[in-house]
Amino acid sequence: MIETYVPLIVMLVVGFGVGFLFMLLSEWLGARRTTDGKQTTYESGMIPRGTARDRFSIKFYMVAMSFIVFDIEVVFMYPWAVQLGTLGMTAFWTMFVFVLILFVGYFYEYKKGGFEWD
Amino acid sequence: MYNAVVNELIGSLGLIKPELALLVTFVVVIIADLIFKNNKVNLGLSILGTIVSGIFLIGMSGTNTSAFANLIAVDPFSEFFKYLILISTLIVLVMSEFSEELHNRDVWMGEYYMLVLGMALGMFLLAGATNLIMIYLALETMSMSSYILSGYTKEIKRSSEASLKYVIFGSLSSGIMIYGMSILFGMTGSLDLYAIQSYLAANGFFQPAIFISGLMVIAGFAYKISAVPFHFWTPDVYEGSPITITAYLSVASKAAGFAVLVRFIKLTFFDAAGSSDESWIMMNSIPWDMVLAVLAVATMTLGNIVALWQSNVKRMLAYSSIAHAGYLLMGIVVMTNTGLMSILVYFFFYLLMNFGAFIVVMLFAHKIGSEEMDDYEGIGYQAPVLASLLTLFLVSLTGLPPTAGFIGKLVLFGAVLDSGWYWLAVIGVLNSVVSLYYYAKVVRNMWLRKVDNGKGTLKFSIQSQALVMVLGIPTLVFGLFFGPIMRWAEHSVRIFLGN
Amino acid sequence: MNWYNIVFYLFALIVLVSAAGVVFSRKMMYAAFSLLFTFFGVAGLYVLLNADFIAVTQIMVYIGGILILIIFGVMLTSKFTDLEIKSGTTGTVQYVLAGISTIIVAAALIIMYLNVDWVQNPVPELESTVKPIGILLMTKYFLAFQVAAILLLLAFIGAAKIARRK
Question: Nearest Cα to B200, choosing from B213, B222, B257, B278?
Fold first, then answer.
């Protein structure tokens, strides 16, 4: 079964290889003319302002925390979904209870206004 | 193909009715809090759910079996601890009603009840868990709630600090525990305690490895019962937490920790062939009794000696609860069913007197605004009823007649002496003598200092005094008529030992 | 040395070097980014152990979730990137004590790993471990599965409680 990962490894190697190759190539072949525009931070075309090292709002933490909880829920769902055909309705109700318990958390957060940005 | 398994699962659901009742209450309280936003409703529902759970528990009394493919055992041993947990939960819920630090508009009481119920559920599962995964999950369910509850009044800096310390030490000890579990799994290929035991018995093992991994797992439990050297969090957390939670942690959480510790040691390393009820033999004579004896001595000695220097009553009670964990550990050291019985008896009495002491300290703190021992001077004449009751609880904690604490200690030391651990018993008694000093200091301050300090009498509500009475009267009565409790504990030492 | 071993040592090297990076970085941000490679390397090791589901979980939960949370945590703190990690008391005594205890723990673990007769069940030819895990979660570990949901719910409520100011 390890063999099934060979394409993945090839992809990783090629991915890293290409990245390094192009870095080196531009270092060797590229022209070196510095202008103001090249020296600034790349911000998708926006002109950067202020410092990037600013404090973030606590709201991001709440979002990340909710994300992890539901992320783990999804991880549990994956093996369930794969074998649902074997176990049938019992497995369905098992997952129903699982999701229901976590849905209480979602409902709680929603009611408390945890998903409102302001 | 899976029908048989599924049917067994459905059958198992009937065995966890008390847990289900708690779970339903937990969810209902969350929803009710969002809809009604009324504390009285939350409190009422929580108490109702706890009582319903208790009724289910009574209905299942005497069951001795295993549920969910050996994930948890439903036996008289876990039942006893479940009663302790339920009684503690009820007391905490009622006690919270009187707490002023919680009834501040900044404190979210809805979540408070949910977390207390969640913690109770975790402890219920921990008391019966017989599978390493289940032990870990139950322990974390309990810990997760207690981490948050210990920092509940977070506007107080102390409280946040307590919570943070608790989380950091807690994660570390969970990490150590789970590492030990993984080594055990690697050696035996199973997570089921019964299967681990039979594998070890059949195939033999490399002794040091079993010893190290067992020790690592026990470290995780020792953290919960705040045994030395895993006690560092205890004083700060006990001082910083809301006092209701301090009391809950020192009784219920400790009870669950003891339940899982006893069960783990007995089920995993027990030599079924070579032992009887009267003496448990451990496989290949791994000296678990010696390890626990060292743990017990270190715990009670350190707890008592440091308690001597405390000037804050809450902190003093924190150290004294460390010391009591040490006494209770002696009951496991002897590895007999009598020892186990003495733990149960002691725990029941400890519940009464410890909760009692904490409630009185809380009520005093409301009136005099302090938990310092020096501020207790002359309080005996300002609040004679409560001060007398506190005196009773402290006498009981010391273990002097005619209180329940005396009977608890008598049974415990009796069990230790019976099995020939004389030096351990001597150290235990010496420790009790040391503890007399700091308990007596509070009593002296209350009654013998500033006899007429001129301050008027303190008024307490009838309900709060009644709550203390409810704990105080049994503390006195069980000191004289302890038969029923002894019999109950005797019936509850049966641990489900596998099919 | 076949290619399996080469891949194993490659991942082991990634884990060790990046873990050293986490410990020895002076700046929080660098430590957090080193941790990314540690998690990744561990995921690789899981794959080599035939634990494909755990490997995917490792990447999804640890790299995709926990690491992000750690980085948020660093960013929520003021002056995060320039924050030098210092501990209060690091003198010779601490170094010696820490060194000795590390050596003792390491020696105990090495002795243990060399001497224990580890259970090595024959690895069944499986296309993927996901299916058996799914069946176990729904049957034998049904209760553990539901308790995990309760644990997550408690964590969720707790996080909401802690994150919000009053």
Answer: B213
- Residues in chain C within 8 Å Cβ distance of B134: 143-144, 147
The answer to whether the Cβ–Cβ distance between C53 and A79 falls below 8 Å is yes
Contact A69 C138 (CB under 8 A): no
Selected residues 271-310 of chain B with any CB under 8 Å from a CB in chain C = none
Using a CB-CB cut-off of 8 Å, the residues of chain B touching A104 are 27, 30-31
The separation between CA B306 and the C-alpha centre of its own chain, rounded to angstroms, equals 21
Q: Is the ipTM of this complex over 0.85?
A: yes
Contact C119/B189, CB-based, under 8 Å? yes
Q: Does A86 touch chain B (CB under 8 A)?
A: yes
* HEC sequence for chain C: CCHHHHHHHHHHHHHHHHHHHHHHCCEHHHHHHHHHHHHHHHHHHHHHCCCHHHHHHHHHHHHHHHHHHHHHHHHHCCCCCCCECCCCCCCHHHHHHHHHHHHHHHHHHHHHHHHCCCCCCCCCCCCCCHHHHHHHHHCCCHHHHHHHHHHHHHHHHHHHHHHCCC
> Do the Cβ atoms of A104 and B34 come within 8 Å?
no
Calculate the alpha carbon distances from A37 to A45, A49, B268 in Å. Answer: 10, 14, 69
Q: What are the sequence ranges of the domains in chain B?
A: 287-499
DSSP B85-148: HHHHHHHHHHHHHH-TTTSSTTS-HHHHHHHHHHHHHHHHHHHHB-BHHHHHHHHHHHHHHHHH
CA-based nearest residue to B313, from B252, B260, B377: B377
Surface of C (111-140) touching A: CB under 8 A:
125-128, 130-131, 133-135, 137-139
* Distance in Å, alpha carbon of C117 to nearest chain A alpha carbon: 25
Q: For residue B72, what is the enclosing H or E element?
A: strand B72-74
Residues of chain C in contact with residue B140, where contact means CB-CB under 8 angstroms, are 151
- CA-based angle B144:B150:B154, to the nearest 5? 115
Q: Which of A53, A61, A81 sits opposite C80 (nearest CB)?
A: A53
What is the domain partition of chain A in residue ranges?
56-118
d(CA B43, CA A33): 72
3-state secondary structure of A87: helix
- Residues in chain A, how many? 118
Considering only the beta carbons, identify the residue of A87, A107, A111 that sits closest to B2: A87
**Beta carbons of B411 and B345 less than 8 angstroms apart:** yes
**What φ, ψ does residue B67 adopt, rounded to 5°?**
-125, 160
Per-residue pLDDT of chain B (499 residues; tens, 9 = 90+): 677 777 888 888 889 999 999 999 999 999 998 888 888 888 999 999 999 999 999 998 888 888 888 899 999 999 999 999 999 999 999 998 888 877 776 677 888 999 999 999 999 999 999 999 999 999 999 999 999 888 887 666 777 777 888 899 999 999 999 999 999 999 988 999 999 988 888 887 788 888 889 999 999 999 999 888 888 888 888 888 888 999 999 999 999 999 999 999 988 887 766 666 666 777 666 788 888 999 999 999 999 999 998 888 988 998 999 999 999 999 998 888 889 999 999 999 999 999 999 999 999 988 888 888 888 888 888 888 999 999 999 999 998 888 999 999 999 999 999 888 999 999 999 999 999 999 999 999 888 887 766 677 788 888 888 999 999 999 999 988 888 899 999 888 888 887 6
**What distance in Å separates residue C131's CA from the closest CA in chain B?**
14
Q: Does C66 touch chain B (CB under 8 A)?
A: no
- CA of B12: which chain C residue's CA is closest? C143
**Of B317, B318, B354, B347, the residue nearest B332 (C-alpha):** B347
User: Which of A58, A68, A105 lies nearest to residue C153, judging by beta carbons?
Assistant: A105
